[in-house]
Amino acid sequence: MSDLKLPTRAEDFNEWYNQLVLRAELADYAPVRGCMIVRPYGWTLWENIQQALDRRFKATGHVNAAFPLLIPKSFIEKEKHHVEGFSPELAVVTIGGGEELQDPLVIRPTSETIIGHMYAKWIQSYRDLPVLINQWNSVVRWELRTKLFLRTLEFFWQEGHTAHATYEEAEAETRQMLDIYNDFAATDAAIPAIPGRKSDSEKFAGADVTYSLEAMMGDRKALQSCTSHNLGQNFAKAFEMRYLDQQGTLQHCWTTSWGLSTRFIGAIIMVHGDDQGLILPPRLAPFQVVIVPIYKNDEERAAVMGAVGKIRAELIVAGIRVKTDERESFSPGYKFNDWEMRGVPLRIEIGPKDVAKGTVVLARRDRPGKEGKSFVSRDNLAATVEKMLGEIQKSLYDRALAFRKSNTVETNDYKELKAAVEKGFAYSYWCGRATCEEKIKEETKATMRCIPLDQPGGQGRCVYCRQPAKEKAIFARAY
User: Fold this and answer.
1) Which of 6, 50, 166, 281 has the highest local Cβ count within 10 Å?
2) Residues 6 or more apart whose Cβ sits within 8 Å of residue 309
3) What is the pTM (predicted TM-score) of this model?
4) What is the pLDDT confidence band of residue 449, given thresholds at 50, 70 and 90?
5) Using CA atoms, how far apart are residues 360 and 377, in angstroms rounded to an integer?
6) Domain identity same for 198 and 119
7) Which residues pair with 239 in a beta bridge?
């Protein structure tokens, strides 16, 4: 780690983010423009996200499978809205084995088409439904402007694809998965996201309805954290995905897709981080606790490290992810700063005096300085640590929620909206017309992030055209 301080978020939020990702060793730039290498610390964070989601997916009957990286380009062209939406982002393989391919292959930007082709083969009867499959993979989208984790040519994610007998079942699946994402975001990532429906202009290419979670970052911009799509029968008709119903009539399936990617790591960084670096929620942190031993000579070292070994063993038995910093060439102060920058939720400091007293120092990452330090007994230390990790998790969520609420303005007219999006989220009535949405985007650089599922009811007037409106929407500048 470099001794240089990070830029403050107030000075340059963008550069703070870029330097932090590199210096915390979450990721690095790949030799191919726009691609990233996820380093072990970042990959462990992603593995913890995977596990938290995979557990929820399997609890609701979903199973994992794997589909090919390469898709015939002709498949992409079968669904007109899909090809229109993805054409600018496609990476196409035209040569294989030294020969030009008759049917070019697309490196998957998403897998609806290849999965539609296979589901058409596998589904024959209502008895074959529902099909509930998820896959963990990477996809390629030829982005022009890239940023580590937030937008890269290749990124890692999960994509769920399901097929159902009725529209109602598909819609229930789409909403269920949004609920699962929302529970994960709040419970594990300590991120208070807003679940809502996308406008027609912002929905997924080929979907009837798109739902998303929108979260406020530390610079008050929005980040789309995941999506869940009701695809209707669009892909089912394109790929002749049909089944015989109980009356013996041939029907097209109703399908869904839903996904969350490594972009979510960017959300965790920007929602919780401070000028010292990362602050990771304990449920997802690669290391929940770091132990920093403090000693001056071999005699002190023997006593301290003996106690450290016992503490570490006790925490591991309790299921706590722990790291002991045994680096000899760095001072305790350097180590404190290093682990603060890496966002470890809780630090245990122990020196000769602590060993003699049977105590340790606990330092909370969410409360830097003296405010976050406490002296505690080594008796039942694992229980004390577990309790404190729970307090940190809740503190991060509460702080992020208070931040979002304090930077969200209910606007009654366009002047108020323009002022609100300069500083955060505008919550405004919208008539539903694409023309108003587009004008707001042109004039303010704010997009309609979502129409929150939680609506006040009643009726108001569109923030732009003043025509009657039944729903409120979130407008914000976004990543």
Assistant:
1) 281
2) none
3) 0.95
4) very high
5) 6
6) yes
7) none
Do 207 and 194 contact (CB within 8 A), yes or no?
A: no
Look up residue 396 and give its amino acid: L
347 and 202 both lie in a single domain: no
Residues 425 and 452 reside in one and the same domain: yes
Sequence letter at residue 82: H
Give tens-digit pLDDT for 343-391: 999 999 999 999 999 999 999 999 988 999 999 999 999 999 999 999 9
CA dist., res. 226 & res. 231, Å (int) = 16
The dihedral region occupied by 276, where left means phi > 0, alpha psi between -120 and 50, and beta the remainder, is alpha
Query: Which domain does 447 fall in, by range?
Result: 408-476
Sequence letter at residue 270: M
Same domain, 309 and 218: no
Residues 315 and 267 placed together within one structural domain of the fold = no
Contacts for 428 with CB less than 8 Å, ≥ 6 apart = 410, 411, 412, 417, 463, 472, 473, 475
Predicted confidence (pLDDT) per residue in 170-185, tens digit: 999 999 999 999 999 9
Residue 166 contacts residue 54 (beta carbons within 8 Å): no
Residue with tokens 């695809």: 231
pLDDT, tens digit, 9 for 90 and up, residues 10-39 = 999 999 999 999 999 999 999 999 999 999
Peptide bond into 130 cis (omega under 30): yes
- Looking at the predicted structure, is the pLDDT value of residue 205 above 60? yes
Q: Are residues 341 and 430 in the same domain?
A: no
Domain count, the chain: 3
As a whole number of angstroms, the distance between CA 217 and CA 403 comes to 9
Cβ contact 230:174 at 8 Å? yes
